[in-house]
Amino acid sequence: MISKKSMRCSTWFKDILLLTLMTSFFFGIFLGSRNLSAPDELRYAEIPREMIVDNDYLIPKINGVKYFEKPPLFYWMQVAAIKTFGLNEWALRFTTALMGLIGVLATYLFSRYIYSRKTAWASALILASMALYFSMAHVITLDMTVSVFITISLYLFFCAIKKDRPIFLVLGFIPVAAAIMTKGLIGLIFPGMIMGLWLSVFKRWKKIAWLYFFSGLLICLLLVAPWHILVQLRAPEFFHFYFMEQQFLRYATPIANRSQPWYFYGIVILLGSFPWVFSLPKTLKYTFSTFRWKNRWQHENEVFLMIWILSVVLFFSASHSKLIPYILSALPPLAILIGGYWATHKKRWIKPCVNVYLLTNVVLIIALLNIQYFDNHTIKSLIFKAKPFITTNDDVVAYHGYHQDLPYYLARIITVNEAFDELSFGAKNGNTQAWMIDEEKFKRRWFSAKTVYVFISKKKYRAFQEQYHELTGSIVAEEGNNLVVVNHPTNEGHT
């Protein structure tokens, strides 16, 4: 005779398997059918490629220049994907798709543990088909990965207190460490802030098993500290740039030039939760219609989810640096709230929920497949037009405009002329004078006997012709608003 416990375990396994197959299909299909977009996808493709070429997995580099804006965990994951599946678009996007899947499965497990099987299914399907979550599972950035690690840590911390499972406190610090090693201090700030607020509201600080808490904190420190110490030993300039400029000043000042109005993330979360946003008003009414401060203990779960959502939205709304994907970690709790409404309020919820899930995923896949035709930043086609002419002995120069595509598609370090941008810090703090050059050095190379290929915009080429009229070179290839010019047209095919 099969016990009820065995039957429950069986349904958990079946649900996870089916959900994995469904999500993997929609997150994985056509994953490699789009060109890498500039600048983000190409940046996070080039860094792991250079790690493999240089056999240096400690210090991230772009175009041979130290790149300390982010920690290396995501790059290491990309390295593993490249070594497993090869260097291609599908492999490079595999990491974010996998993390997106893990986030969906974690939401199912948490929702079922806290609520019910029906709520778990609804929450997972809703999260997997939210427009922003689905899209970011198909794009190479750090945001999906750090969001999922933060989400898992919060799930574990909440269950540790709510279900009196102190071992979850220890386990929760592992994804905290992973989040810190993906994108910095935000991986610790969000779990600490959200759990701290919830514990204060419900006066549950005494429920913390402090021995387990400090054990977990120690494990987190042991996982995080070595990389930071080793990098500081090799590059003394690291700490100030990484912590002060990239962690604190980027948040507190407009140095990143990413300012948006205060209500920006309110709009983002509404659009990002499409099409489920239409259920949000009824969800909030259903969830909190009976809420009163004196009876808040009856709504511990829902208050936790709302604190989570509001903390993320308000924290980033106060920042001087705003980008759409930052808000990604607010979507899992939102999906659980909406999933709870669908599962408990709607009697016939399964079929319409699945239909919306399927239709939304199909529409979003079509949109992603066509979005590359509107990407004006990549110069991949121009690079491949010029690539047959370029030999290993030739110099390739990005003139007054650095393109992330160049080192990746040419699989080499390129010379950059007065367009350092995000490479400025690394160029100043490293022996890069051979390929990060000023106008005078470029002039000497242009008039030398060495063959030099220059990637330049058509607009800047007019000024270039006037400045270097003695040897303006020949156009090798052109695409859109960009050209490739060579100083000594010796190869067949030059125009």
Main features:
alpha/beta, elongated, 21 helices, 6-stranded mixed β-sheet, 495 residues, 2 domains
Task: Report what the structure shows.
The protein is an alpha/beta fold. It has 2 domains: 16-372, no CATH class; 380-486. It has 21 helices and 8 strands. The protein has helices at residues 4-28, 40-54, 73-85, 89-114, 117-128, 131-136, 143-162, 167-183, 186-201, 210-234, 238-252, 264-272, 280-288, 300-317, 331-345, 350-371, 380-386, 405-410, 424-428, 439-446, 458-467, and strands at 61-62, 65-66, 395-399, 415-417, 436-437, 452-457, 474-479, 482-486. A 6-stranded mixed beta sheet has the order 5-4-3-6-8-7. A two-stranded antiparallel sheet has the order 1-2. The longest helix has 26 residues, at 89-114. It is elongated. The model has no long low-confidence stretch (mean pLDDT 91).
Note the topology.
Elements: H1 4-28, H2 40-54, E1 61-62, E2 65-66, H3 73-85, H4 89-114, H5 117-128, H6 131-136, H7 143-162, H8 167-183, H9 186-201, H10 210-234, H11 238-252, H12 264-272, H13 280-288, H14 300-317, H15 331-345, H16 350-371, H17 380-386, E3 395-399, H18 405-410, E4 415-417, H19 424-428, E5 436-437, H20 439-446, E6 452-457, H21 458-467, E7 474-479, E8 482-486
Parallel strand pairs: 3-4, 3-6, 4-5
Antiparallel strand pairs: 1-2, 6-8, 7-8
Helix pairs in contact: 1-4, 2-3, 3-4, 4-5, 4-7, 5-15, 5-16, 7-8, 7-9, 8-9, 8-10, 9-14, 12-14, 13-15, 14-15
